[in-house]
């Protein structure tokens, strides 16, 4: 007995469909077979009855002159095997019969009135003896008048017996087919239910927090995809939990460091006895650590807003070149400490204007350039390149000659909380936030890197328009060509030079 569930439903539906189909086929087959046999017998008797009637209508005078009881010749000439030939009058009374049997009553079956009316009558039914018979009657005209009826009668018992045997045989074949289909459906149901039960059991373990459980087995088609998806989900949950734990550990350290500095200098300054210079240094440290702490909190708040789709952009016209120049000025001091050369390369010939939130886009590029500085060695370089990808898209590339990213880490570097090197600090949210901010501006961010050779971060943003020529000329200083390079050296001096 199959337990309740999808297995029973599969078997039941298969059984019902096949049973109904076989039943309909059996009924149609039995009806067609019976019709074929009965029609064949009817046609055979009808043809003989018609020929008999036609023959004696032509030669009735000759026979009447030679033998007044000319029905005797008709019975002798046209009788059929296993068939009774009868001559009836219009009232259905038997005038002659090939079996010499004289009926006590007139025959009133439906074939007789049809023959009296001039047509060929047919009747199938039981005789008084209980035997199934078929009768075919046709009129016999004498001198243009339907005076007699030629009636053939044959038993259907043998035919019905053969039809019953064929029907029983077809029922047996149908039952065998139904049994095979039922066995097949049970096997099919088990092939589906067993994997589902296995998947359900493992899913129940996952629901209880046992994410190390895995679905084993090489399942095919949708079940295989479902098993792979659940296994992948469990792996991602384990990975996310690990990332979360690492993030908590990292952010705890990141928060504790500025708080420790603030608390230490606060207590020190409170105790008094310091000269103004030492007090100034302490206050500067407190201010710096406070800004750092605010930055960490804002970063987490931005990420939370992005995850909840609550980030609101202040849309306006943004000049990409000016935005990148401001970005370079903001990170100049940090780059100077490592003797890193910053260079802005504008290859567009005209100012590139986009529609977006200037502060958020500046946050994106600050994060990208800050990461480039953080992961570059001393005396290296970082280039910011502005170009046009096509007539409707601007391309900004942040290229560095830093330590690069391995192929393994490159696939995860934009994931939330992921950090290539935990010792360098940070929350692991910067690139994730930057990517989402770019996508909010209908853009795209891609990272290409090679370990030990540097990293290129490409940001594409849709253009609002290319500024007209007059506006372009007004926006560019007189001593600068349309295609220019802005370079910041480690000493903080800004200089302009033409592209080579």
Question: Can you tell me about this structure?
Answer:
The chain has 500 residues and is α+β, with helices and mostly antiparallel strands. Helices cover 53% and strands 20% of the residues. The chain has helices at 6-66, 71-78, 111-116, 157-207, 221-271, 276-307, 320-337, 358-374, 407-410, 430-440, 469-475, and strands at 83-89, 94-97, 121-126, 132-142, 145-155, 316-319, 341-346, 352-356, 381-390, 393-400, 444-450, 454-462, 465-466, 484-488, 494-498. The strands form three sheets. It has a seven-stranded mixed β-sheet. A five-stranded antiparallel β-sheet has the order 2-1-5-4-3. Helix 1 (6-66) packs antiparallel against helix 4 (157-207), helix 5 (221-271) runs antiparallel to helix 6 and helix 6 crosses helix 10 (430-440). The longest helix has 61 residues, at 6-66. It is rod-shaped and about 155 Å long. The chain starts with 5 loop residues before the first helix and ends with a strand.
Which characteristics define this entry?
single chain, 500 residues, alpha+beta, 7-stranded mixed β-sheet, 5-stranded antiparallel β-sheet, rod-shaped, disordered C terminus
SSE blueprint and pairings:
Blueprint (H helix, E strand, L loop, with lengths): L5 H61 L4 H8 L4 E7 L4 E4 L13 H6 L4 E6 L5 E11 L2 E11 L1 H51 L13 H51 L4 H32 L8 E4 H18 L3 E6 L5 E5 L1 H17 L6 E10 L2 E8 L6 H4 L19 H11 L3 E7 L3 E9 L2 E2 L2 H7 L8 E5 L5 E5 L2
Parallel strand pairs: 7-9
Antiparallel strand pairs: 1-2, 1-5, 3-4, 4-5, 6-8, 7-14, 8-13, 9-10, 10-12, 11-12, 14-15
Helix pairs in contact: 1-4, 4-5, 5-6, 6-10, 7-8, 8-10
